[in-house]
Amino acid sequence: MSIPVIMPKQGQSVETCIITKWFRQKGERVKTGDILFSYETDKAAFDYEATADGTILDILYPEGAEVPVLANVAVIGSPGEKTESSRPPEGPVSGKEEKTVIMPGPESGNYSEARQTHPSESITGRIRISPRARRVAEKKGIDYSKIRGSGPNGRILCSDIMNAGQEAYTGSPAVSNAGDDFTDRPLTNIRKLIARSMHASLMSSAQLTHHMSADARRLLEARRRVKENLAAGRAEQDITLNDMICYCVIKALLKFPEANSHFLDDHMRIFRRVHLGIAVDTPRGLMVPAVRNADSMDIVALSRSLKTVADNCKKGSIDPELIKSTAASFTVSNLGNYGVEMFTPVINLPQSAILGVCTIINRPADLGNNTFGFVPYLGLSLTYDHRAIDGGPATLFLREIRKEIEGFMPEAAVGK
Asked: pTM value?
């Protein structure tokens, strides 16, 4: 009996995924656990493993195709079985046009249609590339499948990535006009999905942003003590400013539960626990993993959890369940390290709000007793869905975050 291969649903808001690479071809035998294909959503990339032994009877969507979730993408079964009933109603979705050559099949004396082999591709279908070269390529947005490796057996080295030509960027050759006044660079698949998601968020919700600043002297003092303790060997966990800010946000959310919510058209889902989403910049693009039950953690445990999910996102090993749009109840996006003084973060629907954390700026302030000086202020930008939260409660919530930051006890971060 034939078994359909179904495109997984990675999150409530994900409606389509893009097949980026097929590792097995029609007619090949596969075993349970073999990687069949790679696919990506607007947040991450995944490998699909075979769930049964058998022969690939049909591949219904080519590389580059945008496929609806829960749709059949291939059929596994026994040779000779019919597959017409598994095909999409209107045929495969168009994608990249595969170049094919006639190559010897897996059985001696037979021939089959197979994908043209890349110069650096192994017989298993994977491209030979060093881990460092892969990281550099992903960071620079270079499609290493277009590069001929100079290493042993055509392996792609870091030097090959650094010397890559313009045609290797974004997965498609850049197109310049005759006068070279500009360059047209096609969007990558993941950038198209991110663009669609962000546009949908703004089009389908009533987003408004409030800005406020908080005195950051206590945070900076705590950070100084953390560094001293780390240098002296009195501490193991490097608690960052972002960890402290997230800790303050969690405490504020417990006092304003309407901000710790999802807006679901005809009702709001108010969470009793804080599932904190944190925006992470990765080589593939922005990802927002969630730290579940963050309100139950002390600051050391929170710091470890935030670091763990961020590292897993960058390595590509994050649990798909943690990057669903519904995994977090509230999100923090920190651009302070980039020197951003103010910005308007976009809500990760169906969440009701998101906090943007900006850089610290020294500003003149009254220190008391007719004494004026410069005080470090941390910029805070709260975007909220006006359908879920009114301006007054949103302002009070933002003010509560400021209060928690300004009242932060350095001892909480150093354990004394």
From this structure: 0.64
